[in-house]
Design goal:
By secondary structure, the chain is mostly helical. Helices cover about 55% and strands about 0% of the residues.
């Protein structure tokens, strides 16, 4: 009986450790919450892609911020007018891969964020 209890305790400890490691890995680096959802306050439009793609997420946030400023200052809708959009390499890290691919994804996120911010979606 003593061996069985020891075996059961060790097995349960291993299962608990594996489950904990799996739970910690799920969503790591994606900006996702406990159940895979975007963090509170994240725009719903960006929920699917923004938190899986760093360039898109950064572009979305920057575009949204610029759009709110433009709208508040009564400037016309013009995402391309912003230097951040034209340069499109804010937050780039070599570990993300190609700079050109990063720029393409950043600009896509910027346009989506700018549209949502300007139209207040």
């Amino acid at each position: 009986m003593g061996r069985f209890v020891s075996f059961l305790a060790v097995t349960l400890a291993l299962v608990a450790a594996a489950a904990s490691a799996d739970a910690q890995e799920r969503g790591r680096g994606l900006g996702l919450g406990r159940f895979g959802e975007p963090p509170p306050g994240a725009p719903a439009v960006a929920a699917g892609r923004a938190y899986q793609e760093p360039a898109y997420a950064r572009g979305y946030a920057d575009g949204y911020r610029h759009a709110q400023d433009d709208r508040a200052d009564r400037r016309s809708y013009d995402p391309v007018a912003h230097r951040d959009y034209r340069e499109a390499d804010q937050g780039f890290n070599r570990s993300y891969g190609s700079r050109e691919a990063y720029k393409t994804n950043y600009r896509a996120g910027f346009r989506a964020g700018y549209d949502a911010g300007y139209r207040r979606r």
